[in-house]
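R.M. (postdoc): so does anyone remember the format we settled on? I'll just put the structure tokens first.
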């Protein structure tokens, strides 16, 4: 193992040992390697900790759900910027444009090898909001419009393959200028389909909006946001599982029963309260109580449905 690789391994290991809540993801080493090259071994460690907890925290959650939320911004940005291209790419962007995952997850460190370019790009990205890497990807897609329109929209696999690879060479300064214009013209809060409203208040997409606020955030703040966000995702996953069980039961026993309607009403109301309070992500006691009630009521409705099903089968 070379000295550089040992330094990289030492920094990553130290971060994960100091903050064991963080989950390593493929490509994390690409980001830390840039910090090592630019800052040196001594300064890279503290920078990596702060970056991990306050900037790329969503990517270090137990599941990919936090990262997927970033990707969901991309179709909305494309729709606002170029509806023709958006519609052409709709087959490749739905339900989630995973072709943008590698680039945005690693802040492009996995794709850009030139030291000067990646150092310049990190300067730009880390001085901007956490949503900007997605806007940069949208800018790259828009710059390839002619090439992409030449591919049949009925070939989403081909489009996905092309979009997952960044064009070379990149005219970086021009792209950064266009990204700045795109972000200013269509900020996250004004994207369609209420996509921004569905972003957790504990996501770095929202906690990095204010530079002054970000500058005062502590590592403890980052850990608190992490725990709140992870809990939201866990609740959402449980609700998703319960919804699927309800759909399965409703499909299996489609004829109306006397009390099925009541059970469904309970479930729907619970879904409303659970979903609306979960999106807020405020962490307040009232919101937590509402989420708890919603999940409990949903389970009661589900048990009522299952009981009716059992009676019917008997």
């Amino acid at each position: 193992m070379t000295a550089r690789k040992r330094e990289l391994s030492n920094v990553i290991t130290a971060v994960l040992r100091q903050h064991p809540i963080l989950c390593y993801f493929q490509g994390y080493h690409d980001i830390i390697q840039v910090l090592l090259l630019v800052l040196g071994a001594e300064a890279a460690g503290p920078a990596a900790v702060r970056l991990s907890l306050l900037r790329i925290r969503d990517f270090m959650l137990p599941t990919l759900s936090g990262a997927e939320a970033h990707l969901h911004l991309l179709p909305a940005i494309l729709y606002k910027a170029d509806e023709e291209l958006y519609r052409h790419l709709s087959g490749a962007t739905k339900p989630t444009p995973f072709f943008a995952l590698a680039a945005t997850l690693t802040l492009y460190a996995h794709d850009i090898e030139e030291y000067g370019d990646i150092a310049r790009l990190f300067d730009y990205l880390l001085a901007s909001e956490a949503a900007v890497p997605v806007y940069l990807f949208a800018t790259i897609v828009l710059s390839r419009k002619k090439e992409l329109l030449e591919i049949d929209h009925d070939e989403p696999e081909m489009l996905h393959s092309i979009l997952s690879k960044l064009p070379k060479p990149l005219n970086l300064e021009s792209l950064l200028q266009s990204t700045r214009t795109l972000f200013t013209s269509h900020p996250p809060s004004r994207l369609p389909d209420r996509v921004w409203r569905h972003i957790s208040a504990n996501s770095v997409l929202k906690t990095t909006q204010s530079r002054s606020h970000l500058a005062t955030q502590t590592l403890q703040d980052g850990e608190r946001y992490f725990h709140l966000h992870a809990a939201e995702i866990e609740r959402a996953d449980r609700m998703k599982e319960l919804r699927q069980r309800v759909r399965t039961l409703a499909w299996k026993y489609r004829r109306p029963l006397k009390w099925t309607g009541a059970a469904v009403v309970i479930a729907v109301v619970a879904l409303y309260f659970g979903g609306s309070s979960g999106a807020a992500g405020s962490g307040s006691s009232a919101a937590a109580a509402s989420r708890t009630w919603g999940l409990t009521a949903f389970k009661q409705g589900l048990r009522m449905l299952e009981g009716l099903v059992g009676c019917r089968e008997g």
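R.M.: ...and that's the designed sequence above, right after the tokens. Also worth knowing: The first helix runs from residue 3 to 18. The two ends are 67 Å apart (CA to CA).
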